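Worked Example 4.2. Consider the chain below.
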Amino acid sequence: MKIGVIGVGSWGKRVVGEYNTLVKEGKLTGIGICEKNPTLMKQIQDINPAIVSTDYKEFLNNKDLDAVHICVPNEFHYDIAKYALKNGKHVLLEKPITQEAHKAYELVEIASQEGLILQVGHIFRFANVIRKTKELIEQGYFGKIYYMTLNWTTLMNYMEGIDIIWDLLPHPLDMIHFLTGEYPKKWHITAKPCRRKSLNELAVLELDYSDFFATIELSWVTPERKRLLQLVGSQRQARIECVKQQLHIFEGNEKEFDIPVEKNNTILDEALNFIESITNKKMPYNAHIIGAQNVDIIEKIVKSI
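Applying the procedure from the previous section yields the following structure tokens:
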């Protein structure tokens, strides 16, 4: 099986590295790279791709390519993914699947009609610490869930054309769905551009679910980088460092401790899941419909601002 990567910016470069590891291990027969920026191509070192192109249509017309992992900016997701599916390629598409719900559902329909795998890069579904938290919730370890707080913050340089809601909200929103199986029924959002006239750099959301509520803080103007989930239940509470993969438990005011979690390589595990999904014709963890529903909710949230 040969898998191509379209877009080798900061994230795509990491993705290429993991697929290259799988080639060395014999789990792939080769990789392809499609990137129109020659400067970015020069940053890909110690890799000998089987297929190279600067044009995604030429790239996707190559019959030696079985599947693609698309790592381009959000606004190009729909066009490239649609062309890939129409050319018989299995697709792993970084989040959000699109920025319009009707286009997301169209991609789901095309994939279904063509009998192809279409998955979305909700990467935290592959983090051991999040899977462990889900396991504990299902066991009733925390008791009745009262609320969750998620902080997704960092200090970012001014980025033209990118709205923080579309860029960051897919992660925490999907994590809540992964952990509980629920989407919010109601919400309230406050958002601000801060350093620019349009496009938000800061947002705070209050989400009302069936039996609990959640707050999400998104910020590109906060000095401290956080990828933090705090969960409060009737029996126990948890503080979860989502990138560091640390799970800290509180039992009342007096007892607290860590639950050991082996930190895993989420990009590699997502890539392996993509390969296994193609082989087995099943889509565990990050199926296309999950990505489409995520976009559907975000689109409604954005329209409510």
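The two ends are 45 Å apart (CA to CA). The domain at 2-122+267-286 is CATH 3.40.50.720 (Rossmann fold). Compare this with Example 4.1 before moving on.
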